[in-house]
């Protein structure tokens, strides 16, 4: 998988088949789209490509806006790769990008930088300054510039349209099974374990800390999870996703994971935390003693849930 953060003209001499979007969570609808892009790319000897913007345009135009993200960029890229996408182009969304007219965006970005030959977007796609460009204009520009624009078919689950928005709402409500059903794959957070303040160790709950990039997370609270990457088989654990309101004032989203009866050093390791269930919302406690009592209850509930369910991510030999 090739990651390109600042494409330059003529970078893609071979030509690309691409789709443009945020693709938060990479749900079942996204996966179907990526398969179509890959199939068309192989038939035309093009490179199957995903184009995404960073930061999200809503965050760029409104510094106070916080997108409740389903997944991190790392995890989105992992899912894209699994669908056959060969490269991801992360376009910096800045003043220059925001000022481009639809015609200038097509010429400078889609043609000069990406050498697009086949493009897939939804019929509600907007592009260019003040969102002036739409699907009809992109199709017309494709006719005049020699690229083909394809419409996306809607993907449904249980009679409802699958979208990142619907998954986001399910996670905010703590409905992990509904969210994972729409995703079409387990909800996973991956990254390298970092050092924390080690407060959990003094309380009898040593945790592994994973920083979650972004300003907000759709899923917060106490979670029953499987930990992949420490031992050959996944380990049952309880985790907390949030900003730790009882012990500090911070906007940094942290995923703290406690594996009962496990001792070892996970610092620097790349772990995958697979979420099974949401136990309760994040909350503020009046004292550390009260928090510890609740942590024992949370751990007991998480272990019972995990004992009754197997991890969805396969591990050979487990």
Automatic annotation (TrEMBL):
Catalytic activity reported: FMN + ATP + H(+) = FAD + diphosphate; riboflavin + ATP = FMN + ADP + H(+)
Superkingdom field: Bacteria
Protein's pathway: Cofactor biosynthesis; FAD biosynthesis; FAD from FMN: step 1/1; Cofactor biosynthesis; FMN biosynthesis; FMN from riboflavin (ATP route): step 1/1
Keywords, in A-Z order: ATP-binding, FAD, Flavoprotein, FMN, Kinase, Multifunctional enzyme, Nucleotide-binding, Nucleotidyltransferase, Transferase
Residue stretches making up the Riboflavin kinase domain: 182-307
One Gene Ontology molecular-function label: riboflavin kinase activity
EC category: transferase
SUPFAM superfamilies attached to this UniProt entry: Nucleotidylyl transferase, Riboflavin kinase-like
EC number, as in UniProt: 2.7.1.26, 2.7.7.2
Primary role: Catalyzes the phosphorylation of riboflavin to FMN followed by the adenylation of FMN to FAD.
Record-stated family: Belongs to the ribF family.
Protein name: Riboflavin biosynthesis protein
Taxonomic lineage from the root: Bacteria, Pseudomonadati, Pseudomonadota, Betaproteobacteria, Burkholderiales
């Amino acid at each position: 998988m090739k990651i390109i953060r600042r494409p330059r003209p003529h970078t893609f001499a071979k030509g690309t088949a691409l789709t443009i979007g945020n693709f938060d969570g990479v749900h079942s609808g996204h996966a179907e789209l990526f398969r179509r892009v890959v199939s068309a790319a192989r038939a035309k000897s093009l490179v199957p490509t995903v184009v995404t913007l960073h930061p999200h345009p809503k965050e760029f135009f409104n510094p106070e806006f916080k997108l409740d993200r389903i997944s991190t960029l790392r995890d989105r890229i992992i899912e894209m790769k699994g669908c056959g996408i060969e490269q991801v182009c992360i376009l910096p969304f800045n003043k220059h990008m925001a000022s481009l007219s639809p015609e200038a965006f097509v010429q400078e970005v889609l043609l000069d930088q990406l050498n697009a030959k086949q493009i897939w977007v939804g019929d509600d796609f907007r592009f260019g300054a003040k969102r002036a460009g739409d699907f009809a204009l992109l199709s017309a520009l494709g006719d005049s510039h020699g690229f083909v624009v394809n419409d996306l078919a809607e993907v449904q689950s249980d009679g409802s349209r699958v979208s990142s928005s619907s998954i986001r709402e399910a996670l905010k409500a703590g409905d992990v099974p509904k969210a994972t059903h729409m995703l079409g794959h387990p909800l996973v957070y991956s990254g390298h374990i970092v050092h924390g303040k080690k407060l959990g160790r003094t309380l009898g709950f040593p945790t592994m800390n994973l920083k979650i990039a972004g300003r907000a997370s759709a899923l917060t609270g106490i979670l029953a999870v499987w930990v992949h990457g420490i031992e050959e088989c996944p380990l049952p654990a309880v985790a907390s996703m949030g900003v730790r309101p009882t012990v500090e004032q911070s906007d940094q989203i942290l995923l703290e994971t406690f594996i009962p009866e496990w001792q070892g050093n996970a610092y620097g390791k790349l772990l995958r935390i697979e979420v099974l269930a949401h136990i309760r919302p994040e909350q503020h406690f009046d004292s550390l003693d009260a928090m510890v009592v609740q942590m024992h209850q949370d751990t007991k509930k998480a272990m019972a849930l995990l004992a009754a369910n197997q991890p969805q991510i396969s591990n050979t030999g487990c």
